[in-house]
Structure formats: C-alpha cells, structure tokens
C-alpha cells in the first residue's frame, strides 16, 4: 500500500536524521519509550521498539537529541517528553518520602504516625489500613496501575484483614485513590502538597 503524502514527508524527515530503516511506528514507539523510561534508558526503550536492537536504539537516540529540531512538530514531541519527565521526577520524590517515613520506625504496621487533615464525615479507612497501604507503597513504588493491583492482592492475603470486609471489598481504583490521598498527606507533612482532598481517618468503624 503506497504511503500518503504526510507519511512520505515524515519518512523523509526520519531519513534526514540519517536513518532510512526506521518506520513512523518505530519512531513513535521510540518516543513513547523515552516518555515511559527516560532519555538514557536504552534497554527499556528498546522493549517498546522490539524490531530494533539496544545498540540501534542508542545510536538513534544520539542522532535524535542532536537533530530533533529538524523534525516537524518537534515542539509537541519534546513537550510530551518533558511532561513525562516532570511527572516521573515528582513520583520519584514522593516515593522517596514514603520509603523514608516507613523506615523511621522499627514496626511500621504498628508504629507509623500519620498526620491527617481536618475531620470530615463519612466512613473512612482505619489507621491500621492506612499504615498497611503506606508500607505497600514503600515496597512497590508509585505511579503504575499494576502497583495497586499488587496491593489489592496483598490485602486479600494479609491475615490481619481476614475479617476486614471494608478493606477487602475495595476495588483497585478505590485503593489507588486512597493511596494518592496518603501520598498527599505525607507530602504535606514534609512541607509540600495540598491537603484539601486529604480525607482523615476514623480510628474505629462501627
């Protein structure tokens, strides 16, 4: 099937970087890999472009960063990459805060202190449940949806929650939201963040 005029133009732009054997879909996958893993994570970027070797990805990356301004729409491409980098940097900072907080005590599931925001009405998570979620995040990190799926599995297998219907009945999405609330609380405790959406704890539920 012949290429469209736009695809022919994009092909010529890629050739202009010195690479005649990179297709548009491979270029897009390359950019997606940078967004996901970082500019220098060549082995991980290659997993997004399985048709190329790590060395080919590294060579292409070198040419890309030297000459990306020659590509049409490069401002949008770089903007997406920089936004992803900023998000990843923030997640790394918050994950570090969580790990540091959990490491401050010998028995975090019992001793971890959580500084809650103003009290609100309605059923909420217990402090024991919140401690568990913080410990889980310190183990798995932040950001990816798979993290909360793992936490959900661990909740179901945690002996202390055997009869805790509330926490065991939470969906992955609900667990994700609660974890983000806890992250906001820890960030606020360390001088950052916005606590407006940080729901407080109830020590006990009737």
Automatic annotation (TrEMBL):
GO biological process, one term: nucleosome organization
Keyword NADP: no
Residue span, SANT domain: 17-69
MF terms (GO), sorted A to Z: ATP hydrolysis activity; ATP-dependent chromatin remodeler activity; chromatin binding; DNA binding; histone binding
Keywords for this protein: Nucleus
Gene Ontology cellular-component annotations: chromatin; nucleus
Keyword field contains Nucleotide-binding: no
Domain of life: Eukaryota
SUPFAM superfamilies xrefs: Homeodomain-like
PANTHER family, per database record: CHROMODOMAIN-HELICASE-DNA-BINDING PROTEIN 3-RELATED-RELATED, SWI_SNF-RELATED MATRIX-ASSOCIATED ACTIN-DEPENDENT REGULATOR OF CHROMATIN SUBFAMILY A MEMBER 5
Protein name: SMCA1 protein
Organism: Elachura formosa (spotted wren-babbler)
Gene that encodes the chain: Smarca1_3
């Amino acid at each position: 099937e012949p290429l469209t005029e736009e695809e022919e133009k994009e092909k010529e732009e890629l050739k202009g970087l010195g690479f005649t054997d990179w297709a548009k879909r491979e270029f897009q996958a390359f950019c997606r890999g940078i967004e996901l893993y970082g500019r220098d994570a060549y082995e991980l970027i290659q997993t997004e472009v399985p048709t190329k070797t790590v060395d080919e990805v590294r060579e292409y990356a070198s040419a890309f960063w030297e000459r990306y301004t020659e590509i049409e729409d490069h401002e949008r491409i770089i903007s997406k990459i920089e936004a992803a980098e900023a998000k990843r940097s923030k997640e790394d900072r918050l994950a570090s805060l969580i790990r540091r907080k959990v490491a401050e005590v010998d028995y975090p599931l019992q001793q971890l202190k959580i500084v809650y925001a103003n009290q609100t009405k309605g059923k909420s998570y217990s402090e024991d449940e919140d401690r568990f979620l913080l410990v889980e995040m310190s183990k798995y990190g932040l950001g990816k949806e798979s993290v909360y799926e793992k936490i959900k599995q661990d909740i179901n297998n945690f002996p202390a929650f055997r009869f805790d219907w509330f926490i065991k009945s939470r969906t992955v999405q609900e667990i994700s939201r609660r974890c983000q609330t806890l992250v906001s609380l820890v960030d606020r405790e360390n001088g950052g963040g916005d606590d407006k959406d940080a729901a407080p704890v109830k020590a006990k539920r009737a």
